[in-house]
């Protein structure tokens, strides 16, 4: 599903659609909620754990600098939970 979305958005003929999509706060919220689900999943498959670990530094840097337009206590709690889950990940060797 996401590969199809990426293919559509990254096609040059859809540049205006891509700009519109990535300019939407609602689309970002959806993606952040999905990331939260992946990070909070207690039964993450090894491949998911390893991908999150491989991107841990980037994710933590992103979350450290991510600010909302207004204070949102629920968002801050969710963000803290995601950061904690990512920090605590351990590499799974298959």
Automatic annotation (TrEMBL):
Which molecular-function annotation in GO is an example for this chain? protein serine/threonine kinase activator activity
Return the InterPro entries for the record: ARM-like (IPR011989), ARM-type_fold (IPR016024), Mo25 (IPR013878)
Highest taxon above the source species: Eukaryota
| GO biological processes | intracellular signal transduction
Q: Which SUPFAM superfamilies match?
A: ARM repeat (SSF48371)
Similarity comment: Belongs to the Mo25 family.
Q: Which PANTHER family match?
A: CALCIUM-BINDING PROTEIN 39-RELATED, OS07G0585100 PROTEIN
The name under which this protein is listed is MO25-like protein
